[in-house]
Amino acid sequence: MTETVPRPTLEAVAARAGVSRATVSRVVNGADGVREPLVERVRRAVEELGYVPNQAARSLVTRRHGAVAVVIAEPETRVFADPFFALQLRGISKELTSHDNQLVLLLTEGRDDHARVARYLAGGHVDGALVFSLHLDDPLPGLIQGAGVPTVFGGRPGWSDGTRDAVYVDSDNRGGARDAVRLLAGLGRTRIGHLTGPLDQTSAADRLDGYREVMGDVDPRLVVESDFTPGGGERAMRELLDRCPDVDAVFAANDLTAAGALRVLRERGRRVPEDVAVVGFDDMLPVAEQTDPPLTTVRQDIEEMGRIMARLLLRRLDRHTTDAAITDPATDAVTTDDEPGGVILPTTLVRRTSA
User: Which backbone phi and psi does 297 adopt, to 5 degrees?
Assistant: First the structure.
């Protein structure tokens, strides 16, 4: 019968390193205030002993689980087909990993999933939630608020259910749209169409507003609603050409929509940019650099949005761990800065050959 070897303890690491238990706790939990020579001694002792922190014991002290839920209010088929979500998840994952937190991904295929997600969040499995791709009539914000879980939203909130003070991260969608349409107008284009995103999402609504701010009293036939997908872009571009055969420029609400529009323009024998100039939104390199021709687009830093969302949530969690700060020196890094309501990141116009 094989004898079970006991797990190394915090006290064993302290004895091996010749420091106090509190010092080991601070180093293991990533707290500041320990001199570098002592940090190296503790790390060496951890490696030599094969010490692994006891997450259950740590949770009793800090009341933290070291896990964050990422809730995407879209079906699985959309999430894994759109590189936008991969970029945002990459930024979130990098930030959480650097703070020794695990990412728990929750997707909503339909309204039946909302109660399931709310129950999971209320069940004490995670410390907080990052939520994005919400729609205006989505009940998730209210359900999450009812679960009492600290939350940061991706995208400007557009709902009115008591979460108006929500913390969120977004890009300057209106400003980016204005830049795109001004570029097209500056090229002498006068019949500039817009293929929107789903207008029950604030990002799409804001980009439509930016388009209208430049175009003024625009012919309503020039605006066609789409859905942020290549197939939606194809359908919307066909409808726009049928409505307005004289269209000479298109601002697409995202790069995938623009990619679909470019395919239809090629099918219809319209040269880009000679006959119809096209501008997208996102600057997702796997899409924008591989379209034919390469896509002029508005760049938003999607990965950085994810990082900032995670950073803001971790800051909120640190601020709420007051009891642990008294008990465990590992939480000395708690910030007292006021939480921002919304963080709006700038956009930039990236010129390629489609406009």
Answer: -155, 170
Residue 324 predicted with pLDDT over 50: no
Task: Considering only residues 112 and 91, tell me which one the structure prediction assigns the higher pLDDT.
Answer: 91
In contact, 145 and 163? CB cutoff 8 Å:
yes
Q: Token pair 């970029």 is at which residue?
A: 87
Contact between 84 and 254 (Cβ < 8 Å): yes
Relative to beta strand 192-195, strand 249-252 is: parallel
Q: Of 265, 305, 266, whose CA–CA distance to 282 is shortest?
A: 305
| 3-state helix/strand/coil string of 261-324 | HHHHHHHCCCCCCCCCEEEEEECCHHHHCCCCCCCEEEECCHHHHHHHHHHHHHHHHHHHCHHH
pLDDT (0 to 100) of residue 233: 98
Helix (H) or strand (E) holding 86: helix 83-98
Q: Could you tell me the two tokens for 121? A: 């969040």
Does the pTM exceed 0.70?
yes
Q: 242 with 216: CB under 8 angstroms?
A: no
Taking only the tens place, the pLDDT of each residue in 33-87 is 788 888 888 888 888 887 776 554 444 444 556 899 999 988 888 899 999 999 9
Where do the H-state alpha helices sit in 105-225?
A: 112-122, 140-147, 173-186, 202-215
Q: In three state form, how does the secondary structure of 274-292 look?
A: CCCEEEEEECCHHHHCCCC
* DSSP letter assigned to residue 222: G
Question: Is it the case that residue 142 has pLDDT exceeding 90?
Answer: no
